[in-house]
Amino acid sequence: MIIAVDGPAASGKGTIARALAQHYGLPHLDTGLLYRAVAATVLREDLDPSKEADAVSACSFEDYLLDDPWLRTDEVGKVASVVSAHPLVRAALLNRQKKFARQPGGAVLDGRDIGTVIAPDANVKLFVKATPMIRAQRRHLELRKNGVLTSLDKVLSDIRARDERDSKRSEAPMLQAPDAALLDTSFLSIDAAVQRAIAIVESKTNAPA
Ligand SMILES: Nc1ncnc2c1ncn2[C@@H]1O[C@H](COP(=O)(O)OP(=O)(O)O)[C@@H](O)[C@H]1O
Ligand SMILES: Nc1ccn([C@@H]2O[C@H](COP(=O)(O)OP(=O)(O)O)[C@@H](O)[C@H]2O)c(=O)n1
């Protein structure tokens, strides 16, 4: 079974994807981390993220980089949304994601274009959303827990800028696939959101709860 989970920053898609993977015993890929690894390499090598050739040269990163906590910072997330708009960067990361999705037994992937480009044949597609303010509050809290002090206003404007870039780019923009179920987590606890996601998987497949 392939489960595709898409949605904007801090909507809760990663939390839901991880919980679904654990519930159904499936491997999980956070595809945002791949773009973050490209961004981190660009930053580390002092390249220009807006130049496609620079960003492409950063696509052959070593896998151990994916475990670096720095990748999870907002600094890297912002640059990830710049490098991810380049068609050649997306092409360089495509096969790895498609191969992960097609492994025997299935997989759960989360990102922006899983249901539309990476696994258009997924058995279940979820598009997770929440209001920009609620997403900003979640990210702000997360950053504070990690010792990063920044204002809620700054987090909100970064989230809006990232939404804008991710949904307006010409190649694989963030959008809800026509056959994706919409899951609005704005007023759901994590547990309630996960239960709702499991119920959606159940309704689309014969998988046991
Ligand atoms: N339904 C929810 N209610 C409250 N907090 C949530 C909810 N879902 C996720 N979070 C928290 O919000 C932050 C962002 O969630 P995450 O799953 O990483 O989002 P995404 O993968 O969409 O960026 C995390 O700190 C997570 O624990
Ligand atoms: N499948 C994907 C996943 C991420 N991305 C890009 O990578 C950036 C970081 O993604 P992420 O999922 O790690 O970010 P968060 O939603 O966790 O904040 C996004 O803003 C997108 O620009 C993408 O273009 N396609």
From TrEMBL:
Sequence ranges assigned to domain Cytidylate kinase in this UniProt record: 3-202
Any single Gene Ontology cellular-component annotation: cytoplasm
Gene3D superfamilies attached to this UniProt entry: P-loop containing nucleotide triphosphate hydrolases (3.40.50.300)
Top-level division of the source organism's lineage: Bacteria
Main location: cytoplasm
UniProt feature coiled coil, ranges: none
Sorted UniProt keywords: ATP-binding, Cytoplasm, Kinase, Nucleotide-binding, Transferase
EC code(s) of this entry: 2.7.4.25
Single Gene Ontology MF annotation: ATP binding
Binding locations of ATP: G7, P8, A9, A10, S11, G12, K13, G14, T15
Entry-linked HAMAP family: Cytidyl_kinase_type1
Name of this chain's protein: Cytidylate kinase
Organism: Sphingomonas kyeonggiensis
Gene behind this protein: cmk
